[in-house]
């Protein structure tokens, strides 16, 4: 499976956020999306998930060479930076409800307790209201819901930033497991995280998407090169800068 972005443009009033950008994401890889604050990473995710309408261009899924421009938004799992959870439910109630409404999409279902155990939510916390959870605990529950249904495309907007060391390690392992099931794309400001998890790194800079040479990800000078690219006002507008 592939996710194909072709000549996409998104504007807000007179400000162009993404302009004539192209990229193809493939199943079996984890992509790190890097860009400066305000570059449009969350906007791009909202376009892919159909929360925003493109001004120009096309986003489609591709299976066996067949493009689907009208894919259902249920094919996209989107884990937001700020958790979107029903505050009036307990973690147990939410996961049980989520399982019921997605009964046909969850393979080999477990119990709500087992799912919550798997992301480190203690049994005594599983019956607390979600509104009383810390930001990190809410993010665990939100990510768990997406992982349970194994969506064809999984978008992670600034994952792991609110997790402690142990929880971050647990989430990394879950993300790596999703690699075989989904196209995984996550945005981050933490280059080390992208280096640890990613098969490919994509820069969103000057409204374009540019792939970094994956063979360079673990080079000792990689961080400085990425900083130079994202700091330079002209570099990524030239064909020579398509690969680091």
TrEMBL record:
InterPro entries in the record: AAA+_ATPase, ABC_transporter-like_ATP-bd, ABC_transporter-like_CS, ABC_Transporter_VariousFunc, P-loop_NTPase
Keywords annotated in UniProt: ATP-binding, Nucleotide-binding, Transport
Top-level taxon of origin: Bacteria
Entry annotated with the keyword ATP-binding: yes
Pfam family, one: ABC_tran
Keyword presence, Chaperone: no
Domain ABC transporter: 3-231
GO MF annotation, one: ATP binding
Name used for this protein in its record: ABC transporter ATP-binding protein
Naturally occurring in which organism (per UniProt): Enterococcus larvae
Lineage: Bacteria, Bacillati, Bacillota, Bacilli, Lactobacillales
